[in-house]
């Protein structure tokens, strides 16, 4: 008995070690858990579509590009460099600052020779966690399954010179004179033109639109305070990134202010406050929002999708889309936003999609999209 | 700290004050010398406390005490205490000197045209020691804009302040504002800007794959061209969906290229102002 117990323990431990070293982390339904093998050369063979996709994504996650590309079907277009770039991003896009934190997948359909898997990719980005849902097509090549990686079309723009003659506003702080009234410069005049407060499953939401009524650009922040019956502030929040902060003259932006875990049940009043400061700005680049359409995505969610068209000669590194949705009476019923993870090259377009919650989808009658742009060569 | 100590002594002495035998200046002016005449004989201690200075000195009674202009730079109430066997006190007031500079505050720095009571200005005269001149002064305000007759307004300061309020004119452009007191003047500028666009009209033409739309020159209701950079939102709706572009006005006109196929409705808006709708049969 003295010998048997240690032997059993050693055998079980050794068995668990072997299992741990040879198996890939099971990511099905598990959000944010890194997957992959512990040591090179111990990857289980991709004998099933699930196994193949898990191996592939684990290699991508660990940036083992050679291994990952080895798991790509020969029927895919493009070379390894294009493949790597598609995952790493380029031109200072949001993707180039992001990391694949985890993934979970489920089969859509599987036959003997091909399969379609739906994968939810969990990214960590500078603007917060992001999810990307993609369908992967896998084919059986010999004894193993491989992932088909469709070649991503990169906009091919001919060499050209694009004259930029749009207005630009600079700020001069004035002379050194300290005389009273010699440096007066009024803040831009901005106005909240609509406001709507609703309860959602995540909490209370205050949203609407704000317009810059002035003739100069404004940096705008909208704050809201929920006030109870005794005129006490229950909570105060700001629009953070759910607004186009820099508004050119007469430009309208949606805003959304979230109050997580709060309901409007005890709220008697909503106190709005809009702050505007004068900032240097440029009317360039102009970004068109094309082919906007409400649709249902493969997961059954209602989305507004379209294409952003950069009409200027400047690369927009991180495009940010903010959309306001109106009901029949023109009232703002929801504001959604989304970042585009690829850079918007000059004279090129990129697709975007923003989600509309099921609770308001039926009331949406019209919408308006504005585009925020972050360019690395501008502060 | 020194002023506090002397003040404390002064108030203590003032409490013991007997009949007054010295005379303080009646019309002292900031920055000018003043004298205090005394009577009697012997030595006394002289204290002077004002809003900006304090002094203690041994003086001979029966002689005049000279107070230099440098000690009276700050306008306001001064207190004198003279202590011999007992202490006596008196107060006198130092007025601001004649106006030397003018603080001129104008609000706002930008104003839409044709707004009632939209422009206001406040003038405050100061002497060379930065004392507010409380004595009434005649102030003249002058507003001068290109292609319009200058507008003049006169008034007297009350408690050191004179002000005016007026409407903005109908023409956009810079406005010079002057305020003057005697030979002193101050100049400010404000910008009269076009108001909201009025009668926003667009026209368009078909191109391969879409339409090019542009506005007529965008004016406000007073006929002023809106400033460059003003955003016009163009929206084209066809069977495929909706296209929109926020295009800035350039030289009075905003222009955008929109994708469209088949019957297309194009509209324009600027802020809360809507323009006309355009129906175009775009190329398929």
Structural write-up:
The complex is a heterodimer of chains A (379) and B (284). Chain A has a four-stranded antiparallel beta sheet. Chain A has 379 residues and is mainly beta. The longest helix of chain A has 19 residues, at 4-22. Chain A has helices at 4-22, 49-61, 65-70, 80-88, 358-361, and strands at 99-110, 114-125, 128-141, 144-148, 168-169, 190-199, 203-212, 218-227, 233-238, 246-247, 252-260, 269-278, 281-282, 287-296, 302-310, 318-326, 332-339, 349-356, 366-374. Chain A is globular and about 90 Å long. With 284 residues, chain B is mainly beta. In chain B, 5% of the residues lie in helices and 55% in strands. Chain B has one helix and 25 strands. Chain B has one helix at residues 2-15; strands spanning 22-23, 28-29, 34-38, 43-49, 54-60, 65-67, 76-83, 87-95, 101-107, 110-112, 119-126, 138-145, 151-156, 162-166, 173-181, 184-193, 197-198, 202-207, 210-215, 219-220, 231-238, 241-248, 255-259, 262-270, 273-282. In chain B, the strands form seven sheets. A five-stranded mixed beta sheet of chain B has the order 2-8-7-4-5, with helices on one face. In chain B, strand 18 (202-207) and strand 19 form a beta hairpin. The longest helix of chain B is centred in the N-terminal third of the chain and has 14 residues, at 2-15. Chain B is rod-shaped. The interface between A and B is large, with 41 and 43 residues.
């Amino acid at each position: 008995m003295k010998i048997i117990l240690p032997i059993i323990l050693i055998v079980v431990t050794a068995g668990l070690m072997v299992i741990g070293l040879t198996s890939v982390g099971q990511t099905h339904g598990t959000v944010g858990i890194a997957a992959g093998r512990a040591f090179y050369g111990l990857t289980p063979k991709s004998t099933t579509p699930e196994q193949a996709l898990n191996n592939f994504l684990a290699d991508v996650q660990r940036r083992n590009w050679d291994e990952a590309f080895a798991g790509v079907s020969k029927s895919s277009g493009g070379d390894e460099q294009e493949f790597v770039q598609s995952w790493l991003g380029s031109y200072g896009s949001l993707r180039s600052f992001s990391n694949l934190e985890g993934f979970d997948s489920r089969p859509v359909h599987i036959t003997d020779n091909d399969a379609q898997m739906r994968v939810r990719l969990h990214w960590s980005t500078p603007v917060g966690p992001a999810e990307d849902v993609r369908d992967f097509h896998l084919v059986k090549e010999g004894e193993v399954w491989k992932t088909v990686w469709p070649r991503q079309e990169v906009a091919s723009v001919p060499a050209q010179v694009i004259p930029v003659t749009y207005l630009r506003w600079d700020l001069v702080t004035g002379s050194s004179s300290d005389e009273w009234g010699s440096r007066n410069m009024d803040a831009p005049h901005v106005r909240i033109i609509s406001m709507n407060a609703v309860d959602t499953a995540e909490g209370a939401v205050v949203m609407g639109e704000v317009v810059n009524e002035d003739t100069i650009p404004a940096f705008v922040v909208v704050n809201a305070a929920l006030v109870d019956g005794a005129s006490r502030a229950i909570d105060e929040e700001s629009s953070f990134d759910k607004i186009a902060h820099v508004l050119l003259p007469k430009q309208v932006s949606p805003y959304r202010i979230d109050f997580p875990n709060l309901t409007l049940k005890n709220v008697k009043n909503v106190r709005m406050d809009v702050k505007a400061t004068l900032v240097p700005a440029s009317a360039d680049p102009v970004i068109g929002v094309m082919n906007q359409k409400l649709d249902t995505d493969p997961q059954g969610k209602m989305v507004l999708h379209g294409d952003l068209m950069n009409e200027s000669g400047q690369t927009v590194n991180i495009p940010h889309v903010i959309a306001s949705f109106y009901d029949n009476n023109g009232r703002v019923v929801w504001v959604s936003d989304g970042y585009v993870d690829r850079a918007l090259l000059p004279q090129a377009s990129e697709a975007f999609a923003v989600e509309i919650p099921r609770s308001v989808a039926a009331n949406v009658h019209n919408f308006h999209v504005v585009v925020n742009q972050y360019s690395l060569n501008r502060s | 700290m020194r002023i506090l100590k002397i003040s404390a002594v002064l108030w203590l002495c003032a409490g013991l004050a007997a009949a007054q035998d010295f005379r303080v200046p009646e019309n002292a002016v900031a920055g000018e010398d003043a004298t205090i005449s005394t009577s009697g004989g012997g030595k006394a201690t002289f204290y002077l406390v004002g809003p900006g200075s304090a002094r203690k000195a041994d003086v001979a009674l029966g002689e005049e005490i000279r107070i230099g202009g440098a000690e009276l730079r700050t306008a306001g109430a001064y207190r004198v205490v003279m202590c011999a066997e007992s202490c006596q006190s008196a107060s006198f007031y130092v007025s601001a000197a004649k106006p030397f500079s003018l603080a001129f505050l104008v609000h706002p720095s930008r104003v839409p045209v044709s707004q009632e009571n939209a422009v206001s200005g406040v003038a405050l005269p100061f002497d060379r020691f930065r004392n507010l001149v409380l004595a009434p002064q005649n102030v003249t305000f002058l507003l001068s804009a290109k292609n319009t007759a200058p507008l003049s307004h006169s008034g007297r300061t009350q408690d050191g302040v004179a002000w005016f309020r007026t409407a903005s004119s109908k023409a956009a452009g810079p406005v010079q504002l002057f305020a003057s007191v005697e030979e002193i003047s101050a100049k400010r500028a404000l910008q009269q800007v076009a108001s909201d666009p009025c009668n926003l009209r667009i026209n368009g033409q078909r191109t391969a794959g879409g339409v090019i739309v542009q506005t007529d020159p965008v004016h406000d209701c007073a006929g002023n061209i809106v400033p460059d950079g003003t955003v016009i939102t163009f929206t084209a709706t066809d069977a495929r969906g909706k296209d929109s572009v926020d295009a800035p006005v350039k030289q009075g006109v905003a222009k955008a290229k929109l994708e469209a196929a088949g019957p297309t409705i194009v509209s324009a808006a600027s802020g809360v102002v809507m323009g006309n709708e355009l129906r175009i049969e775009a190329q398929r």
